[in-house]
Amino acid sequence: MKFIHMSDIHLGEPGVLVEGLDPHIRLNRALIHIVENHADADRLIITGDLTHWADAGAYAALREAITGFPVPVRLMIGNHDDRAAFLSAFPEHPRDENGFVNHAEDLAVGHFIYCDTVAPETHVGHFGPDRLAWLARQLEESHAAFLFFHHNPLHLGDPATDELSINDADQGPLRALLKQHRETVRHIFFGHVHEPLCGTLAGIPFSGVPSTLHQVIPNLAPSDKSGSAALEPSYRVVLLRDEDVVIHQIPFAWDGPVTWHGNAWEDWAKPGA
Ligand SMILES: [Fe+2]
After folding, report:
1. What would the pLDDT profile of 214-273 be if each residue is shown by its tens digit?
2. b/e string for 57-88 if b means 16 or more Cβ within 10 A?
3. Which of 37, 166, 225, 257 could tie 125 with a disulfide, CB 3.0–4.6 Å?
4. Cα of 151 to ligand 1 centre, how many Å?
């Protein structure tokens, strides 16, 4: 199975720049790139920060952009989104019994579980007892699970951005639940960080994905500031094959030169040697 992990598209009203960049042009470019190169993907999963200021026009533009898209799309919300504004643009979107945008689906490779970590008017992630109980039920029904969050569910060693992870009070019980299901959870995917990240959480592999817009430059020094810049944007292609998870980072907006080599020994020979 192949799916696309994209995140933090940060749409404003069409024509409005965000961090000096046009998020609609970027999204459009990414979608075209997917159609041209990965139209065989089974899912396009966007792990939150669909918009920058939760404008109705931004959600409407997103709806238009993905309507009829050849790859089935799954949406999640992030700290820049507003749950009510999102649901008024996507009223048919599934949610859990408490109204959170938690949803899940069974695919041949396992249970895909999309978690809502958003709380109103804060950039900090939340995953309290009601959401945790929903996740616990999902995991109990899974033989193999792939988890998706917007916020990172663990601290990453970057003091400023760690303040904006899932909050400390909610992280502990979430970690305990994940450890309980360590054999079931194959991978944790998240957005929010705007940087290429990988590691393990209590032995469970995780990956954070760059944004299609602006990127965060890790600041591991003691600081309450995080820096962002217009570095190369990417989405990820994830291949799930039997026991394996393989993740490729795709710099879809690169328009500089590319050098192509064959695999023969001579193809890498020193010129003139
Ligand atoms: Fe973001």
Report:
1. 999 999 999 999 999 999 999 999 999 999 999 999 999 999 999 999 999 999 999 887
2. ebbebbeebbeeeebebbbbbbbbbbbebbbe
3. 166
4. 9
Strand partners, 26: none
How many whole angstroms from 264 Cα to the centroid of ligand 1? 43
* Angstrom distance (rounded) from CA 98 to CA 29: 36
Domain 2-268 falls under CATH 3.40.50.720: no
Whose CA is closest to 62, among 18, 15, 21, 12?
12
Residue-wise pLDDT tens digits, 180-222: 999 999 999 999 999 999 999 999 999 999 999 999 999 999 9
Spatial separation of the C-alpha atoms in residues 244 and 43, rounded to whole Å: 18
How does DSSP classify residue 97? T
Q: Does the predicted model carry a pTM greater than 0.90?
A: yes
Angle between helices 56-66 and 23-37 (to 10 degrees): 10
Crossing angle, helix 129-140 and helix 168-180, to 10 degrees? 10
For the chain, which residues make up each domain, given as ranges?
A: 2-268
| CA 263 / ligand 1 centre spacing (Å) | 39
Strand ranges inside 222-262, DSSP E: 227-229, 235-241, 244-250
What burial letters (b/e) apply to 16-38, b meaning 16+ CB within 10 Å?
eebeebbbbebbebbbebbeeeb
The DSSP 8-state label assigned to residue 151 in this structure reads: S
Q: Which residues have CB atoms below 5 A from the ion given as ligand 1?
A: 8, 49
Q: What share of the chain is helix, strand, coil (3-state, %, to 5)?
A: 25, 25, 50
For the chain, the distance separating the N- and C-terminal CA atoms, rounded to the nearest angstrom, is 44
